Amino acid sequence: MRFWLAIVVVLAFGAITVAQDKQAVEPVPADLFLSDLKEAYAKPFADEVVIRLRTPSGDRSDTVTVRIDPGPPGERKGPQAVLLEMGPLRVHIAGGTLTAISTQVADKVYRKTFAGAITPAKLAELLPPLLLPQLAIVNPEDERLSSPFEVLRGVAWSDAVVDESARPMTVTMRGKGSTGSIALTSLVSTMRLSKVSATVKRAGAEMQVDMTVRSVEPGDPARWAIATEGRQEVAYLTELRPTPRPLEIPGGPPPPQ
Question: 2-227 has which fold?
Answer without folding.
Answer: outer membrane lipoprotein receptor (LolB), chain A (2.50.20)
